[in-house]
Amino acid sequence: MEIKKENLKKIFFGVIALIIFYWALQNNIEVMSWVHNGIGLFAPIILGLAIAFLINIPMRAIEKTIFRKQTETVKKIQRPVSLVLAMLLMVSIVILVMVIIVPELIRTILIIKDSVPGFVIQVQNILNNLLEHFPDLANQITVSIDWAEIGKKILEWVQHGAAAFAGSTFSAISATFSGVFTFVLGLVLAIYVLLQKEKLAMQVRKVFYAYGKERRVDEVLRIVAIANKAFSNFFTGQCLEAVIIGVLFFVTMSLTGFPYALMISVTIGFTALIPIFGAFLGCFIGVFLILVTSPVQAVWFIILFLILQQVEGNFIYPRVVGGSIGLPGIWVLIAVTIGGNMFGVLGMLVMVPMCSVIYTLLREDTYKRLNEKHVNNKKIEGKIQDNKH
């Protein structure tokens, strides 16, 4: 069999890749440490590109909506004006959420502080009534409280806490300044990228075409375009879905007379940015707040949440988010599960659009291979029906 030079290259680089992969598995701790250090080194660049991507979504919409008529003057001002408006919009949303949550949170803490003694008495009365109806439980449950030991433990905790706080103050301040510095650098980089995005994209394309094969570069750029569309549609749909679920909770809670309607609705809407599981975190916070005021209402709130969650999961999310990225529900669940286990909340947000890209490419390749084999969908469906019988 004739072995071509191109095949020898593929075999050589394949063997090298397997050796490197095996070595990485054997030294995974060192590899993860290098990756962590590399991410820390390029943190401002990564953060800047992430900020640029997020700001570009509303900025692009503003450009298409406001600056439809293209004149020489409009071409000069549309980018900086759209960038400023997009940044103001995002900052305004953050400030609005803080203005709604912070005063409500302070008021809620004060109410909870005043309600805790009554809540404890309520719990004690429930336990006393339970023991009266079931006297056998009183013989099995023995509770002894050593207040001296509790006071000793509290004093030790305060002493250790004060020492730890004093020791970590400098590191906390240093980390804060480092985080602010990284964010400022990332923001400056994001602004530069957004103002010059067409020019930068053209420069990257030229480099790719200069050092790569045209067919492969075309395929890479096509995948990048699919990824950009998937990520943009996902974040847009996720934000829209969070607003819808927040408004839905506020309306239903206000009509049914639940306390803390505004704060809980905003919290659920904010946590709903995390796919699938985020709303349950908001539900937990809502149950805790309502529980102190009225345990019965807390139970009714759980029932209300489950009903609205079914509406959101079956009607809102598939149409707003799932439809926008073209990803079936089972794929969304798999993506969220894997991303959450690997990288937490950030992994959930990134893995869903990434799976959308993989799903799109796999679907295209599958249909391409079926067409090459002259197999159509009706033939496959017919075989599936035959197997059922």
If you had to describe this structure to a student in words, what would you say it looks like?
The protein has helices spanning 5-26, 28-41, 43-66, 72-133, 135-140, 147-195, 197-211, 214-256, 261-271, 278-293, 295-325, 329-372, 377-388. Helices cover 90% and strands 0% of the residues. Helix 3 (43-66) crosses helix 4. The radius of gyration is 28 Å and the shape is globular. It has two domains: 43-136 and 170-211, no CATH class; 214-380, no CATH class. The two termini are 47 Å apart. The protein is mostly helical and 389 residues long. Its main location: membrane.
What is the fold's blueprint, element by element?
Layout: H1 5-26, H2 28-41, H3 43-66, H4 72-133, H5 135-140, H6 147-195, H7 197-211, H8 214-256, H9 261-271, H10 278-293, H11 295-325, H12 329-372, H13 377-388
Helix pairs in contact: 3-4, 3-6, 4-9, 8-9, 8-11, 8-12, 9-10, 10-11
